[in-house]
Structures are given as C-alpha cells and as structure tokens.
Amino acid sequence: MKTRVELYQLKHGDKTWNFTSARKTVVHNSIEYLPVRGLQRTVIEDESIDKCDTEVTFPQMNLLNADGDDLKAVFINKIFYGGVTITILELLNNQTLVLHKGRVTQPKFDESADTMTLVCETGESFLNRNILTRKFQATCPNSIYDRFCGLSFDEWSFDVTITAISGLNISFTVNPTQVLDENGDPVLDEFDQPMMETKTYAAGYLDLGLLLKDGVHTLLHTGSGTGAKLYRQHVGLTVGDVVRVAPGCDQSLKMCHEKFANNLRFAGHPFIPNSNPIYTQLIK
C-alpha cells in the first residue's frame, strides 16, 4: 500500500459495516472495505485522554454492508442504543496503524448538508468518566442476567417466531421445545424420538424482559406468551424471524425469590426504614 488509506469498521451486535475513504474498494485482512465518497473525520488529538475523541461524518446515503443492512437505521430512533463500536485504521506503506478504537456515543444529523455525524469516544475516555457507584437502596441494583445477578439468559430464554409487528407492539408464537426429565435429559416417546411440547406463559411473564436478535438485546416493556411491547424499535426485526425472549424482573426481593429462586444473590436492602433515623431519632 503506497498511498495513505483510512478504513472504518463499525459493529452493532452481529452486524458489521466496513467503509473506506479511498476511491476504490480496499481489501485488508480478507475484509472488503467499501468506498464512501464524502467520508471524513475530525483530528484525533492524543495528548490527553479527554481529548482523544473524534467525529466521523457520512453522507446520508444508503450505507449498506454486504448483507444489505443500512447503518443509518441503527441511529434513527429517538432513544439511541449506544452499542455501536468503531475502529479506524490507517494503511501506509504496507503498515497498519490503529488510529481510534472505541464506541459511538451520539449521532448528529444535518439535513441541510445531508450528512450523519457520529461522535466517537475511546475506551480510555469511557473508563476515565466519573460514574455512580452502587447505592444503598431497597430494590436490587443488579441488571437481570448480568454477572452479579447470576441468572443465565440461555437457560431462561426460549425461541419464538414473530407473526406481526405494529409500531413497538409485536406478536409471536412460542416454538416447541423438547420435554426434559428431572435430570435435564430429553424424554423419548415409544419410537425413541424426543418428545416436544409448546409451553404457555402467563400475562406479565415477559414484563421488563429481553429480546435477542443478531447479538443485540432489546428491553420488553410488557409481554406474555403471545406478544410484547418493545421499549424501542429493534433494527432489522421482521415478521417470520425466530428470536429469543426471556422474562424480566422488577428488582424486588419478592419477584427475585418467587419467580427466579435467586434471592441469595439479591443485592438490595428491602428493610431500609422509611425515615432516616439520624434525623428522626435522638441518639444519646
């Protein structure tokens, strides 16, 4: 590579977009980077952690990957899901230099210029932020299925087939699953074939649960065994898709115990007094 070329790789779940500011397609490490006319970025300053962010500007055209997924569709929602990572590479004289590696924190659209600008920060600047630590609160501060909660998403989730989509409301049918015995082994019928069953789930079972498709999780506002309401649009979700859904938790000790039998990992403090004893009682 005799000329200087910049490569841009963006990832959202299992989907990847590869672009280049060069005039022609660039192949690097067996990956094709498609040319985008007008692709540019701001200067990356590296003298300080707080100043190493950059802004990448794309024209508002069909920014499609090899599978036909439009990058712009990820950012069109009013509620931006900050799960897009970006890596900027520089190729010069057969040498590869990583200019920037981090995540997209904000999209900005300029209708007059017909551009989309992505504000990107590095992992170092993200870790350098001051964040709120755990609070002394009645409800559990854990997020369901995270490492502190301890529940397994794979064990609690099940497959459904999307049958209808109307705005944020989706309808689905629960896919059949194998019947298991008390040891977790498949139950066989008289022909030594695994027995299948279609489970049913009560209204409210999926409230505050999760939907998983293409490596991206979307919160379920409400849900049962026949449908759910999404917290935000899930990009690329279509009728006929087979996705996984899992029940949610309201972070209370009661639900943690009765629904998930996970109360030993409950990290809240449900017996906090309603009034602060420091202010309401005189300690002698």
Structure write-up:
This protein is mainly β and 284 residues long. The protein has two domains: 5-127, no CATH class; 153-265, no CATH class. It contains four helices and 17 strands. A nine-stranded mixed β-sheet has the order 3-4-2-1-7-8-9-6-5. A six-stranded antiparallel β-barrel has the order 10-11-16-15-14-17. Strands 12-13 form a two-stranded antiparallel ribbon. It is globular. It starts with a strand and ends with a helix.
Key terms:
2 domains; 284 residues; 4 helices; DUF2163 domain-containing protein; 7% helix; mainly beta; single chain; nine-stranded mixed beta sheet; Phage_phiJL001_Gp84_C
The total of beta strands comes to 17
User: Strand order, biggest sheet?
Assistant: 3-4-2-1-7-8-9-6-5
**In which range does the helix fraction lie?**
under 10%
Total number of distinct structural domains: 2
Overall pLDDT confidence: 87
Supply the helix-strand structural class.
mainly beta
Low-confidence spans: none
Helix count equals: 4
- The rough form would be described as globular
Radius of gyration: 24 Å
Task: Name the beta content range.
Answer: 35-45%
List the secondary-structure elements in sequence, H or E: EEEEEEEEEHHEEEEEEEEHH
- Rounded to the nearest angstrom, the distance between the terminal CA atoms is 79 Å
Condensed summary:
The chain has 284 residues and is mostly beta strands. It has helices at 123-127, 153-156, 253-258, 277-280, and strands spanning 5-12, 15-20, 26-28, 31-35, 40-41, 54-59, 84-92, 95-110, 115-122, 158-166, 169-174, 177-178, 196-197, 210-213, 216-223, 227-230, 242-246.
